[in-house]
Amino acid sequence: MDPSDPGVPGNGPEERPARLAVGVVGAGRVGTALGAALSRAGHRVVAATAVSDRSRARVEERLPGAAVATPQDVVAAADLVLLTVPDDELPELASGLVAAGVPVAGKLIMHTSGRYGSAVLDPLTRAGALPLALHPVMTFTGRPDDVNRLTGISFGVTSPEPLRPVAEALVLEMGGEPVWITEAARPLYHAALAGGANHLVTLVVESMDLLSRAGVAEPGRMLGPLLGAALDNGLRLGIDGLTGPVARGDAGTVSDHIAELAKVSPESRRAYIALARLTADRALGAGLLKPEAAERLLEALAD
């Protein structure tokens, strides 16, 4: 499906946003990728903030023609403002723009934080701005393919109900798929994403390190097919895709793992126990693990 196709829901002439002057406050990996995507959709990125040499280079590469300016000037020049700053900076930025007297009435102000909904922009909303929270569910590395990664991904969308069609149309224009998240559910939504994606990387790196200690020369090559299959099983089958000693109730094997990890990595041991307990609870609840086997496992996992 082509997100620029007028036949796509939310993309008809009456729902599709007019061509907008776009400003980016925070020319990092996310801000420049989304700015470039909006530019591809026909909007015009007119200004961006950039403090470091790296961010200035990013603006020049991804947002050609955009002026480098202060946050106040970026907001003043734009119809749609992207506030793509770290989560902890967002509340202060929103209130600071209002305190500085920057005119925001009638402007679309969009942030990309997963943690917050649109309420974090309340100071701007009270000043007449139109608040949007559009969180792209993707990791951004700063590489040239960041913009292409937007195609087909989900965006967590939160906004006042009257602005929902505009928010969803912007997501479609950037190549994504809007998924509505209520304001109250935003923290849980973000915790789920961070727990899955960030902790996955930690687990993979930890597994690679332990394999290296076991003498495996190319741990990534060994893990790739296994982890790819496990991820596919989990996404397709849920808990029914679980395999391994916990699912089988092999308490002896689990005990051996814990004893060995205690010798080489106490941190890994603690993480293994915590995740094995969660796995056992899930497997027991799904009927994959019999109660007597679960009892033996919990004895082995007693810390």
From TrEMBL:
Residues 13-136 form the Putative oxidoreductase/dehydrogenase Rossmann-like domain. Transmembrane segments: none annotated. Gene3D superfamilies: NAD(P)-binding Rossmann-like Domain, ProC-like, C-terminal domain. Residues 154-277 form the DUF2520 domain. InterPro entries: 6-PGluconate_DH-like_C_sf, DUF2520, NAD(P)-bd_dom_sf, OxRdtase/DH_put_Rossmann_dom, TM1727-like_C_sf. Signal peptide: none annotated. SUPFAM superfamilies: 6-phosphogluconate dehydrogenase C-terminal domain-like, NAD(P)-binding Rossmann-fold domains. It comes from the Bacteria. This is DUF2520 domain-containing protein. It comes from Actinomadura monticuli.
